[in-house]
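Hey,
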Amino acid sequence: QAQLVESGGGLVQPGGSLRLSCSVVSGSITSISEVTWYRQAQGEKRQLVARISRGGSTKYADSVKGRFTISRDDAKNTVFLQMDSLKVEDTGEYLCNGDYTIGPSLYDLWGQGTQVIVSS
């Protein structure tokens, strides 16, 4: 069964950069029409950070526009989230999500999350 696996989180100082990866294991990323990155900060609602479609269309939360870039490499079965000029308020657990299609069935896949801490 296909799974999503995130990686790349860590501790970084304000103004620094991280690149997160969301990889499809035991499946193909082309079976997911949209891959979305969410942020779950402690005590707050889960928020959409960025989304990319199969065709490459992108959407960003206003708070990350100009700082974050989402991209996909179908050959690597991976979606990336390049995060630059990080701010303390970017801290949280980052999760990727996508609806995986197998024939007529749609499966709502979530990764386990990767923690990002922006702190001096």
